[in-house]
Amino acid sequence: MATAAASVHLVPMNVESDISDDSAVARRFQAGDDTALEAAYQRWSALVYTSAIRAVGNEADAADITQAVFVSAWQSRSGFDAAKGSLPGWLMTLTRRRIADHWRDRARHVRRVEAAAQVEPDEPEEIAADSVIDRVVLADELERLGDPQRRIVELAFFQDLTHTQIASLLNLPVGTVKSHIRRSLERLRRRLEVDGGAL
Predict the structure, then answer these.
(1) 114/129 same-domain check
(2) Are residues 81 and 2 part of one domain?
(3) Does one domain contain both 46 and 137?
(4) 81 phi/psi in degrees, rounded to 5
(5) pLDDT per residue as tens digits for the range 75-125
(6) Amino acid 82: pLDDT
(7) Parent domain of 99
């Protein structure tokens, strides 16, 4: 899954032996220690993945959720307060949010496909069919974009947020948001042109 935090490596690694207990991992994680991120992933990624697979029933989606949880946790680690709870507890809170986001995204996709299938009764049959096909292709291609591209496009075109607002909401540079939108629109245009040429 493409993310803005591609530099964060979530592959289990041998971490230094001085991270010997959960509280030490939590302290160093909050302080921004990369080895603590690796230790947290080693210790609790299975817990996150198990919760995700039970909720979504799909290994690929559960793996995406697991990675998204740890990327999100790392990016927002300043929001973790060890005095208010444990690091695995906080990770599970993030996991529940990601699972809820997953189902909201699925429901949105279903609504888009259902809406695309509805045809205005007074449209000529051939035009109506082409319109439905275009909308289904568009909804399908949006689903394939993956995050954060899909989320950025939805915020820009379905919620009418500015580049600056999207950058602030997703904690990304404005230039990155603009690049994602430009590349996503180019991909959508190519897909629609290919499918249109094939009809």
Answers:
(1) no
(2) yes
(3) no
(4) -125, 110
(5) 999 888 888 889 999 999 999 999 999 888 888 887 777 777 665 555 555
(6) 80
(7) 1-118
Least confident of 32-41, 152-161, 167-176: 152-161
Closest CA to 158 of 99, 108, 103, 85: 108
| Mean pLDDT for the stretch of residues 38-53 | 93
- Share the mean pLDDT of the chain: 76
Do 5 and 91 belong together in one domain? yes
